[in-house]
Design a protein that fits this description.
The chain is of the alpha+beta class. It contains 4 helices and 7 strands.
Length: 159
């Protein structure tokens, strides 16, 4: 019997979560199969006090093994009350937290380090801009049968 994409993504994210938890990070994994047969997976890593986002990104990169044929994006979530009202309008929210995320990219060895480094650069920019650490680091994985790059989660729709 063939293994479903939901199972592949779940196994991959749970294995990564287990390794990060062994290093002392609190994690959560959520995987959902959508009605269009696409699968969205998300690993959230809570940023503990005294730990930089760079440490979490480095540990994630060292242990990341994602299924071939998937897309991934990294990002961070921030407390909305710590930023200006203009920033609250500019970024989408997820359960009240500001969600800042990269565009999805193909999962492969060559771009994995580059993409996580870019995500860290994005997080550093937000850190300088808002003078706040991220609450959570987020790694998203997507599989879709049409093999198209998914829309970025957390983007604002233009009116």
């Amino acid at each position: 019997m063939a293994v479903s994409w939901k199972d592949k993504i779940t196994r991959s994210l749970k294995a990564l979560a287990k390794k990060l938890e062994a290093r002392g990070y609190a994690t959560r994994v959520l995987v959902v199969r959508n009605s269009d047969k696409s699968v969205d997976g998300e690993l959230r890593v809570i940023v503990p006090r005294g730990t930089s986002e760079r440490d979490i990104m480095r540990d994630t990169l060292m242990d990341m093994r994602l299924p071939k044929g998937t897309w991934f994006a990294a990002g961070a979530r921030y407390a909305p009350d710590t930023v200006s009202p203009e920033a609250r309008v500019e970024y989408a929210t997820w359960y009240g937290k500001l969600d800042v995320t990269q565009w999805y990219a193909r999962t492969n060895r060559q771009n994995r380090a580059e993409r996580l480094n870019d995500a860290y650069g994005m997080i550093e920019t937000m850190h300088k801009r808002w003078r706040r650490k991220a609450l959570e680091i987020v790694l998203r994985i997507n599989y879709n049968p049409k093999d198209r790059r998914p829309d970025r989660k957390g983007k604002k729709k233009k009116k």
